[in-house]
Each structure stands twice: as structure tokens, then as C-alpha cells.
Design goal:
Layout (H helix, E strand, L loop, with lengths): L4 H4 L5 H8 L3 H4 L4 H33 L2 H7 L1 H27 L7
Length: about 110
């Protein structure tokens, strides 16, 4: 599932939403290479944070519930945040590759 603004907004804090929004078509094209690198770093950090947190929550919930099936539903919000930032990171990295290709000595292909 690819998240859009209306789906991501209720899940994210204000700063997280700004980070997510920077990866969308209307804003990503305004970023230069340096800005893009900074946003990629912040997005990668957020993705790692929520991926790790979801893993820890799944383990804790499974211990309390005694089975993995119960753990899956309890941590959906954290898992959704990890997915949101994973998708955003993919878009940002794709844009960086595009900028680097355009700036290569051979120029655009």
C-alpha cells in the first residue's frame, strides 16, 4: 500500500509529516542535491527508528499474548510509520539518482 497525505497525516507528528511531504512529487523537485541528502538522512533515521520499534513491540506483545498472531494487530501504527518512511526513502533515493545522472559528465541519456 502506498500512503498519500490524507492517510499519513493522522499517523505522523507535525515534523514527521513535513518529512514525509518532502518526498512527494510537488515538493521533491524543489530540493537541490544537498537538501535532498539531508532529507534522505532524516528519513532513513525515522524509518530505522520505527522498524526497530515495531520489532521490539512485536516481541513484547508476543510475550504477553503468548503468540505472534496477537502481536501483529497491536503494533499496526508503528509498522505503518515504518512503511511510510520506507516509501518516502525510496522516492527520495530515486530522485537523488536522477539528479546525479543529470549532473554526470556525459549529461542526461
Amino acid at each position: 500500500m502506498t500512503y498519500n497525505r490524507s492517510q499519513a497525516r493522522p499517523l505522523l507528528t507535525g515534523d514527521e509529516f513535513q518529512l514525509f511531504s518532502a518526498s512527494l512529487d510537488d515538493r521533491i523537485k524543489a530540493l537541490d542535491k544537498k537538501q535532498l541528502g539531508e532529507v534522505i538522512t532524516r528519513t532513513r533515521r525515522a524509518r530505522s527508528k520505527y522498524t526497530d520499534m515495531a520489532g521490539r513491540q512485536n516481541i513484547q506483545t508476543a510475550r504477553r499474548a503468548g503468540r505472534r498472531a496477537a502481536a501483529h494487530g497491536a503494533n499496526r501504527r508503528t509498522e505503518a510509520k515504518a512503511q511510510i518512511f520506507g516509501e518516502a526513502l525510496g522516492r527520495l533515493q530515486k530522485r537523488l539518482e536522477h539528479l546525479e545522472k543529470d549532473q554526470s559528465p556525459a549529461g542526461p541519456r
